[in-house]
Amino acid sequence: MNGKYFYFAIAALLGVLTSLFSMLLFLLLTLIYLILLNKYKRYTTPQLTFVLCLFFIFYLTGEHTAANNNSKLSDSLSIFHVQYAENTKVDGDMLQVTALEKKNKEKLIIRYKIKSEEEKEKLKNTNFYGRLCQVTGQLKNPPFAKNPNAFNYRNYLSSKQVYKILELNTHPLSKCSRVISSPLTVIKEMRFIGIRYLEKSFPPEIAALSAALIFGDRSMFDPETLMDYQRTGIVHLLAISGLHVSLLIGMLFYLGIRIGLTRQFMMNVLLIILPIYAILTGASPSVIRAVLTIFLVLFILRWKKQLKLSPIDAISITLMVYVLFTPLIITDAGFQLSFSVSFAIIFSSTSILSRYQKIVSAMVVISVIAQLAALPILLYHFFEVSFMSIAANLLYIPLFSFVFLPGFYLLFFIQLIFDDTPSILINLFMNIITLANGLIERLADLSFAQLITGRPNWLSLIVYILFILMIFLVWEMGLQNKGKQVIILLAIILFTFQNVWNVVNPFGEITMIDVGQGDSILIHYPFSQGTYLIDTGGTVQFEEEQWKKAAKPFEVGRDVVVPFLKGKGIKKVDKLILTHGDSDHIGGALAVLKEIKVKQIIMPSVAEPSKSELTIIQEATKKGIQVVKVAEGSQWKNKKSLFYVLGPEKNYKGERNSGSIAIIANIGGLKWFFGGDLDQEGEERIIRKYPDLDIDVLKAGHHGSKTSSSEKFINSITPSISWISVGEKNRYGHPDNEVLEQLSNTTIYRTDLHGAVTFRFYNESGTFSPFLHNIKQ
User: Which of 144, 155, 232, 391 is the most core-located residue (most Cβ within 10 A)?
Assistant: First the structure.
């Protein structure tokens, strides 16, 4: 029964999913699956019993993992004995490394603030392996997601069985003793030494690509270049995959046979080399999948020659072995992409790929198959895909497979043997890399090629999977007669149904995005009848020495606001309202302008715009975006909603906070007040001119500072709900206790406590929901 292990693998996955996620849902799916096996695959009672046993084995494995997936360390501990387990990462003035706490055998992320440039260079080139060290510091919980669809670092680490971050007070190597390195540690040391050798021996561009293709390390890559690879859908080429492993194993096997070694001997050698190679290259999901699969095939060929193992059986067994030992890996995007694409290509190899004999057409078909298989996963994790990826893969797969991969190995070994590499080779590869990166940058800037849908829910994921399966089934039956038309129709539905839903969605929302110590509020109307973004948050940058700067410093606009918008499927903002020129309100605007289409920017009418405002105006002019300066009396309508500007006065010349744009609006049956950082002086001007102002929801000024939200103002507008956008444990002590007391008669929502807060409405009624209300902090 060829392919039987595939059905076993599905049962194994269902077992783990049942234990880790929704028990009722996946138990129901398992029951349906057993019925289908019995009806269509004619599984007998003993066979179904075996499938059910597999399900329970993996269910219990998942249960055991979930039950033990927590820290055993007390937060009160301050002295630790640790053994460093992974390569160090030095970024700016921060060192990070994974270590094993010896007493409890628990992995920790260790962070150390570097004191000087000299210390940085020394640490960067220091081998931490083989050291048992006593360190002191404070344990902290990893940060968790505080906005919908945001990357959850705590869950990410938890899936890798890391639960705590240790912030060191002392040097990480101050009190150490040498320990005997295990074979695993020795291989990891070789990897560390190899990466550092590449960095010292080659120009940065060659070193970065060589480290990625030889050792699976992308830490040397320029962040912008890496982003271009991601946006064009070819970042997988920087990860060591089945293609790389197969090429290398094939070359080694061929060379061994050519120099006179027997096939039996070469198989034995490869069985030893494969596990070592997996560790040397970082043991990513794609590497483990490729190595395990090839190891399994070679093992069967070597010792069980009478047993035939099909490719689908080999990869199915690989999946079961992988998940059995690390059940939480199923949440990893790399694992999901690697196996889904591999299964799709293997299943298509005889029924679809065999029809395309020409190299170019075969490559196009493989790229299409891979893109279809990866689509739901890409949209779930990254909210967008690039239509340029097929063309980009056609260009770059041959370049990486037949130029970069063998070429960088050649350069590496020439440098190792002769301690020098001919400049002609260096210049050749530098020119190729420059051309390749320049083209990637241009392709990445083609915004029309980006499909932004937002994160699909479970129902949408099922629809995606069903339509993709239908496309493969029709394709498999042939493209004669109406086959092409059916596939085109299915593809159109596949790539548009979620965006169509975004347009016809009858629900609207107003969300106070958690941007830390700053402001950003999204107003999104039903049926996509208008999308407004009030402020963009921003990271306050302090002047510091160059060596202290991270390669890609955290930036609120790029790292919080843009992913939030894309996660909602928002690719166009009708009005970007920038209340005033402070960086914590408009610092993220440039990132939004780069990634999201903006039709109009609204700014306060002030006599002296800030430097940040002038920069935004300059960027808007380049992009042809209309910039409108508003003052008291300005207004616009959106269906039943009227947005009326209460301040500032035209060509305002006073203090910047006092000159914030203050807006009242009727949305979802409630009256809203959005006032940026409006201070008490500005509030008093408003209530003098508008004494009968009545507000349901107040966005408190200046993050709850005592300079805003005066008692007189609150008593005048009588809000029932208060929103405070404020950073957790911020240096300013916001929100002020006096302000909280003045707002005590209202329901207070704070981003530091509640994360993002959303008012979801239908017609003239809606509900408030804080993002963190069901999340354990």
Answer: 232
CB 634 within 8 A of CB 613: no
List, in order, residues 6 or more apart from 258 with CB less than 8 Å away. none
Lowest mean pLDDT among 28-42, 305-319, 656-670, 703-717: 305-319
Fold of domain 508-540+551-770: Metallo-beta-lactamase; Chain A (3.60.15)
Cβ–Cβ under 8 Å, residues 189 and 182: no
The number of C-alpha atoms within 13 Å of 602 and in the hemisphere containing its C-beta is: 23
SS3 94: strand
> What are the tokens at 374?
């990866």
Contacts 24+ apart (CB under 8 A), 188-194: 188/85, 188/86, 188/87, 188/129, 188/279, 189/127, 189/129, 189/130, 190/280, 191/87, 191/215, 191/217, 191/279, 191/280, 191/281, 191/282, 192/87, 192/88, 192/127, 192/129, 193/127, 194/280
Give the single-character DSSP code of 735: S
Q: What is the DSSP letter of 723?
A: E
| Burial class of 741 by CB neighbour count within 10 A (0 to 12, 13 to 18, 19+) | exposed
CA distances from 660 to 164, 591, 626 (A): 41, 22, 20
Q: Which residues pair with 760 in a beta bridge?
A: 509, 767
Rounded CA-CA distance 600/532 in Å is: 10
Asked if 581 and 122 touch (Cβ cutoff 8 Å), the reply is: no
Residues 6+ apart with CB under 8 A from 597: 447, 571, 572, 573
For CA atoms 496, 498, 501, 503, give the dihedral sign.
negative
> Left if phi > 0, otherwise alpha if psi is -120 to 50, otherwise beta: which for 568?
alpha
β pairing state of 162-168 and 106-113: parallel
Strands 600-604 and 94-101, sheet pairing = unpaired
Answer whether 590's CB lies under 8 Å from 615's CB.
Answer: yes
- Beta-carbon neighbour count of residue 553 at 10 Å? 13
| Residue 362, pLDDT score | 86
Cα distance between the two ends of the chain: 50
Q: According to the model, what pLDDT value does residue 2 have? A: 60
User: Residue 170 is encoded by which pair of tokens?
Assistant: 């002392």
Cα–Cα distances (Å) from 246 to 38, 291, 323, 336, in that order, read 37, 9, 22, 20
Closest CA to 757 of 508, 514, 561: 514
Binned at pLDDT 50, 70 and 90, residue 130 comes out as confident
The string of pLDDT tens digits covering residues 193-234 is 999 999 999 999 999 999 999 999 998 999 999 999 988 888
Range 647-654 average pLDDT: 92
- CA dist 47 and 34 (Å) reads 10
CA within 13 Å, CB half, 186: 5
3-state secondary structure 384-428: EEECCHHHHHHHHHHHHHHHHHHHHHHHHHHHHHHCCCCHHHHHH
Nearest Cα neighbor of 168 from 70, 105, 99, 117 is 99
Q: What is the pLDDT of residue 305?
A: 63
Distance from C-alpha of 295 to C-alpha of 211, rounded to nearest angstrom: 24
597-611 as b/e: b if 16+ CB within 10 A: ebebbbbbbbeebee
pLDDT at position 120 is 94
3-state secondary structure of 199: helix
What is the chain's mean pLDDT, rounded?
Answer: 91
Alpha carbon separation from 126 to 90, 123, 170, 271 (Å, rounded): 11, 5, 17, 32
CA proximity to 18, closest of 317, 327, 320, 326: 327
Of 752, 751, 747, the C-alpha closest to 767 is: 747
3-state secondary structure of 718: coil
What CATH class is the domain 79-180?
mainly beta
Mind listing the pLDDT tens digit for each residue in 246-258?
878 888 888 888 8
